[in-house]
Amino acid sequence: MRMRKKKHGAERLAANARYLLERPEAPLADPSALFGREAPTYLEIGCGKGGFASGMAEKYPGRNFLALEKISDVMVIAVEGAEARREAREADNLRFFIADAHDLPLWFAPASLDGIYLNFSDPWPKKKHAKRRLTYREMLTMYFGLLKPGAPIRFKTDNRPLFDFTLEELEAVGAKPHYVTYDLHASPENADNVETEYERNFSAKGFSICALEVTAPEVLTTPAPTVGTEGTGAGEADGAEP
Fold first, then answer.
1. d(CA 174, CA 13)
2. CB 42 within 8 A of CB 94
3. Which has the closest alpha carbon to 13: 81, 111, 61?
4. How many Å apart are CA 166 and CA 134, to the nearest integer?
5. Which residues of the chain are under the pLDDT cut of 70?
6. Catalytically active residues, by annotation
7. Which of 139, 140, 193, 134 is nearest to 159 (CA)?
8. What's the distance, Cα to Cα, between the start and end of the chain in Å?
9. Nearest 5°: CA angle at 99, between 101 and 156?
10. β-pairing verdict for 115-119 and 152-157
11. Cβ-based neighbours of 185, under 8 Å, separated by 6 or more
C-alpha cells in the first residue's frame, strides 16, 4: 500500500531526531557502538510503522534494535510511535534509519549483525519483478554476509507464493531453514513472536502467517540470476502496516 504524504513530515522527523541515524562514513564493524553499550544488535528490514521494532526493544532490553524503512513518510509514524512508547522501554535500545535495503553494505561491515528480521515484505507478485523481492537470492547472499556466524534471518509473511519463492531461493543458495511453519500462531515458534499491526489485522481475519528461520550454510552457493526477471528494483519492504 502507498502511504499518503505526511503534513510537516520533515519537521516531525526532526522533532524525533534522537531515534534517527545518519549513514556512517564507513561500514560499522560494531553496530552496538551506536547505542553506547555492548549488546547483541538486530536489524529489521522494512519496519513500516515501527510496531515490531518497538515491541522487540521493550521485550528484550538486553538487545539493541535497528530498523530500516525506505519511505520517509512511513518513518514519521515509526519514530513518533517509538517516542510515544519510550517509557515502556527499560533501555535506550532502539534506532531507525531511512535507506534502501540494497545499500546495507554501506552501513554495516561483514559479520557485524546478530540477526535480521524480514516481516511482511512486498511480494512483488509479477514474475518479471522477482529480483525486487527482499528474499531474492542476491539479497539473501548479502544478508548472510552481514550476519555473524550462526546469526539468523527470521522471515514471516501472509503471502504464501512469496513464502514458497523464499524457500526456493534459500535452496538455490544452499541454505536450509531450521524451521518452517505455514501457521505461525498455531506453532511452538509463536511463543516468542512479537506481532506487527499488519499481522494482528490479518490473523484476526483468519489468515495464516508463514514463518521460517535460517542461518548461513557452511558453503554459500552463488547461483545465476533467475531468467525472465527485470531490474533489481528498490528493495522496498511493504512494511507500511495498516
1. 41
2. no
3. 81
4. 9
5. 1-5, 226-242
6. 122
7. 134
8. 9
9. 45
10. parallel
11. 193, 203, 208, 209
Q: What angle do CA 118, 30, 43 make, to 5 degrees?
A: 10
189: phi > 0 → left, psi -120 to 50 → alpha, else beta; which? alpha
**Rounded CA separation 130/116 (Å):** 21
Residue 239 has what pLDDT?
42
CA dist 172 → 22, 45, 92, 222 (Å): 34, 22, 39, 8
**Residue 206, pLDDT score:** 86
Reading the block at residue 24, the C-alpha cell is: 556512517
- The answer to whether the pTM exceeds 0.85 is yes
Q: Which residue has the cell 553499550?
A: 37
State the pLDDT at residue 222: 81
Burial status of residue 54 (CB atoms within 10 A of its CB: 0-12, 13-18, 19 or more): buried
